[in-house]
Design a protein that fits this description.
The chain has 228 residues and is mainly alpha-helical. 75% of the residues lie in helices and 0% in strands. The two termini are 31 Å apart.
C-alpha cells in the first residue's frame, strides 16, 4: 500500500521541479501538482499491467505447466492489481485537490468511468501481447524499462497536450494513453477541450491493440505449457 503512494508522489515531485519550477510549462491554469498527479493515476495503472502482466505467465510457470486453467486469468489479474493501487492513489489526488483548492469539474465527472475503462482496455491489450511474447522471448524483461520510459515521455503526463503543435497532435494521439490521460484531466479538472478527433483516434488504436492482443494470446495459448 505504501508503494502505491510513494511511487506516484515522488514522480510528481520530480516532475514539479523539472517541468514547473524550471521549464515553467503551462498547465491550463491548474496547480502543477494536481495537473501531473491526475495523469499519473491512469499511467500508474498502465505501468503495473505492463510490468506485471508481461511477466505473469513466466512468473507462474509451475501453474501453467501443471494445471489447466484459462491463461487469460494471469494478465487480467495484473490489471486488477493495478486497480487497487489506482484507488489508493486516487485518495491522494483528492487530498491534493482539497489542499490546492481545485474544484472538480462536476459536469464531466460522470464520464470518468468511461476513461477508466479505456485505460483498462489499453493496459490489458498491451499486457496480453507482452505476456504471450515473453513466454518465447525472455528479452521482453530487458526491454520493459526502456519501453516504459519512452512511452512515458510520449504521453502527455508531465506536460499539457496543448503545448504540442497542432500538426503533431494527431501523431501523438496514435499513442492510446494520450486519449486516456487527456480524458482523465478533462473529466476531473475540466482541462483541455474534451472529446475530439484525437481522443477517437486513441480509442480506435486502443481497441485494435486489445482485440489483436486477445487473438494473439489465444492463438499462442496452446503452446505456453511446452514453450515456457
Amino acid at each position: 500500500m505504501a508503494w502505491a503512494v510513494v511511487q506516484p508522489v515522488m514522480t510528481m515531485l520530480v516532475f514539479t521541479f523539472l517541468f514547473d519550477r524550471v521549464a515553467k510549462l503551462p498547465t491550463d491554469g491548474i496547480p502543477y501538482e494536481v495537473f501531473s498527479f491526475t495523469a499519473l493515476l491512469p499511467w500508474g495503472l498502465f505501468v503495473t499491467a505492463l510490468n506485471q502482466g508481461s511477466r505473469s505467465l513466466v512468473a507462474h510457470h509451475n501453474m501453467v505447466t501443471k494445471i489447466y486453467f484459462p491463461r487469460l486469468i494471469l494478465p487480467i489479474s495484473s490489471v486488477l492489481a493495478g486497480l487497487v493501487d489506482f484507488l489508493i492513489a486516487f485518495f491522494i489526488l483528492i487530498g491534493l485537490m482539497l489542499y490546492f483548492g481545485v474544484m472538480p469539474a462536476w459536469q464531466y465527472v460522470w464520464t470518468l468511468p468511461l476513461f477508466l475503462l479505456l485505460a483498462i482496455m489499453t493496459a490489458l491489450g498491451v499486457a496480453l501481447w507482452l505476456s504471450a511474447i515473453n513466454v518465447k522471448y525472455r528479452d521482453v524483461n530487458h526491454a520493459l524499462p526502456f519501453l516504459t520510459q519512452f512511452w512515458l515521455f510520449a504521453t502527455p503526463v508531465a506536460y499539457s497536450f496543448s503545448t504540442i503543435p497542432e500538426n503533431l497532435q494527431i501523431f501523438l494521439s496514435l499513442n492510446p494513453m494520450t486519449g486516456v490521460v487527456n480524458g482523465f484531466r478533462w473529466a476531473l479538472l475540466g482541462a483541455g477541450s474534451g472529446p475530439d478527433t484525437t481522443l477517437w483516434v486513441s480509442v480506435v488504436i486502443s481497441m485494435l491493440i486489445f482485440i489483436s492482443g486477445l487473438f494473439y494470446f489465444r492463438s499462442m495459448e496452446k503452446t505456453f505449457a511446452d514453450t515456457i
